[in-house]
Amino acid sequence: MEIDKKLIAKLIQVLEELKKVTKGQDILTSEANEEKQNDETLGNVIIKSPIVGTAYLAPEPGAKKFIEEGKKIKKGDTIMIVEAMKTMNHIPSTSDGIVKKVCVDDGSPVEFGQNLVILD
């Protein structure tokens, strides 16, 4: 197999130009994003969505939210509602802890297995 030195030189030139253009910008690959997410959730309990639907953080519009960051919750407490096919499904906490992060917005769609809440 023969290596085209002109092609390699052109590739290096393009990469150097790209490096100059992106200098100072925080560009993460999908692997780096996953690594960052793993660092964020390391040692914490992650509550994932058991179904596909729309997430609601309060029992009705304008009402007090089920959980907020920094709030202490117990296993079995409702953390949010996921509506699927006009059915309101209360999602319980899988363990005791303090809410570190709520990963979804009110009224946003959620997928099966998507992170909903991270507990300390």
Give a quick rundown of the structure.
This protein has 120 residues and is of the alpha+beta class. The chain has a domain at 43-119: Beta Barrel (OB fold (Dihydrolipoamide Acetyltransferase, E2P)). It has 2 helices and 8 strands, in the order ααββββββββ.
Give average pLDDT, whole number. 85
Major sheet details: 4 strands, antiparallel
Number of helices: 2
N-to-C SSE series?
Answer: HHEEEEEEEE
- CATH class label of the domain at 43-119: Mainly Beta
Roughly what percent helix? 10-25%
- Class computed from helices, strands and strand pairing: alpha+beta
Beta-strand content: 25-35%
Instruction: Count every beta strand, where a strand is a DSSP E run of 2 or more residues.
Output: 8
Adjacency order of strands in the biggest sheet:
1-8-6-3
Give the CATH H-level superfamily of the domain at 43-119. Answer: RNA polymerase II/Efflux pump adaptor protein, barrel-sandwich hybrid domain
Roughly how many Å is the radius of gyration? 22 Å
Shape: elongated
In oligomeric terms, what are we looking at?
A: single chain
Remind me, CATH topology of the domain at 43-119? OB fold (Dihydrolipoamide Acetyltransferase, E2P)
Separation of the first and last Cα atoms? 55 Å
> Per CATH, which architecture of the domain at 43-119?
Beta Barrel
Task: Flag low-confidence runs.
Answer: none
Provide tags for this entry.
8 strands; alpha+beta
Question: What report would you give on this structure?
Answer:
This protein is 24% helix and 30% strand. It is α+β, with helices and mostly antiparallel strands and 120 residues long. It has a domain at 43-119: OB fold (Dihydrolipoamide Acetyltransferase, E2P), CATH 2.40.50. The strands form 2 sheets. It has a 4-stranded antiparallel beta sheet, with no helix packed on it. A 4-stranded antiparallel beta sheet has the order 5-4-2-7, with no helix packed on it. The chain is elongated and about 65 Å long. It starts with a helix and ends with a strand.
